[in-house]
Amino acid sequence: MSATLVRRLRPEWIDYNGHLSEAYYVLLFGFATDALMDRVGLDAAYRERTGCSLYTVEAHVRYLHEVAADAEVEIRTRVVGPGPGGPAAKKARLCHEMRVGGVLAATEELMALHVDRGPGRAVPFPEDVAAGLAALAEPAPDYAGRAVGR
Prior knowledge:
The protein contains three helices and seven strands; from the N terminus they run E-H-H-E-E-E-E-E-H-E. Strands 1, 2, 3, 4, 5, 6 and 7 form a seven-stranded mixed β-sheet that branches. Strand 4 and strand 5 form a beta hairpin. InterPro entries: 4-hydroxybenzoyl-CoA_TE, HotDog_dom_sf. This is Thioesterase family protein. It comes from Nocardiopsis tropica.
């Protein structure tokens, strides 16, 4: 398992239908990405020291079940891979799965680039980070890589 994050919903995240508003699914998935970054060495100290960070460049969210106002969500994050590039890898593909009471409520698949904020361009992951991501790599879930509407 790559990483798991558990959060209780906040009242301000609830929409006019009494469910989690769609923007907050992405916020919660973002928290899960942050937790994974911390786990593999892309934490705040790394970002400050190197000027590098992970930038999401593409995402696909699927809303499968409504999430009620009083829910506690569990988000499991998979590193999908290993990807191409070996030691020169600059990108990471992640899949987040949000569950409520064991029921899959939403997924997010994303592509992220390791970016040096100074020149604003993608750069290879440091060896230790690349190794940490590779150690967590799992096969892609069946929904990964699908286009909208398929």
